[in-house]
Amino acid sequence: MDKLELDDRVSRLERRVSLLSALALLVLLVPAVLVAAYMMRATRSMPPAAAKSPPVVYANAPLPHETIAFGVELRRLYDLQQQGLITSGDFAAKKADVLGRSMEFGDEAEAVKAANALLTDNIITTADYDVLKRKILKLDR
After folding, report:
1. Domains of the chain: which residue ranges?
2. What whole-number distance in Å separates Cα of residue 103 and Cα of residue 85?
3. How far apart are CA 92 and CA 43, in angstroms?
């Protein structure tokens, strides 16, 4: 075997080895890239921890104190009115009933904030807010 023939054989072997190593690298990298892409996609679809949905309040669940109760009930009634399931007269009557009840508040500051949120969302009027605030702060006694 002469030198040219030997060089030709070495050259073909080198090409074959480089092709096989490239194929092996491809076989190993493709699944790794697919797994990484899947993990990134799954991570993006999860909601961020800061954007947790508010807790669900069920109708029969006991409420911690009246601060939540009056706000939840008035919001529920307002939603029913907005959906057209009750009339504005029904809403006004039920709102007067809720605001006329005797209420005890665990935290007066939270209760005033809840009442203010109802006013801001146009669920109660300014007059209703004043009545509610006087009840919360026990100014009617």
Report:
1. 3-50, 66-136
2. 27
3. 46
